[in-house]
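So, can you check these tokens?
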Amino acid sequence: MQPADTIWMSPQTRESLEQELAALMAAPGPAGSDEVVDAWLARKERIRQIHELLTKAEHAVDPADDGVAEPGMVLTVRFDDAGDTETFLLGTRATVDSELDVYSVNSPMGSALLGATPGQQRSYQLPNGGTQQVTLLSAKPFAAHAREAVTAGSPQR
């Protein structure tokens, strides 16, 4: 597992944040009106947020392929009450993926699953006060999941 002061993000997310940071820093400063100053202050805050994320970002491309639920892993879970399954990336809110939902390790389900291995059942509290039981079916590194998705989408020869 990773130390609490580091976060995992995909190489694509890192690149996107670096591009956003460069664009924000290249924009001119305030010209004087209150609206312009407010926009400039908001831009400064976003620059601070991105800088903090990039500073805390884990430099490893992927966690070990050991089946343990941790940041950077694509998890498939079964909701035990309904039998439905869901696949998502365990990451940070800054980790955006067009193909997968992203759950933070600080979310109720993310924190409950942290450290789980396939077959383990975990529970977490729902906003309405109820309890949700989930079973971890699989945990794969993001890159391995992405390779499988590309392979599955490629034409057969």
